[in-house]
Amino acid sequence: MAYRDSPLPIGYGQTISQPYIVAYMTQMLNLSPSDRVLEVGTGSGYQAAILSRLAQQVYTIECLAELAQRAEQVLREMGYGNIQVRVGDGGYGWPRGRAL
Question: Is the pTM of this model over 0.90?
Answer without folding.
Answer: no
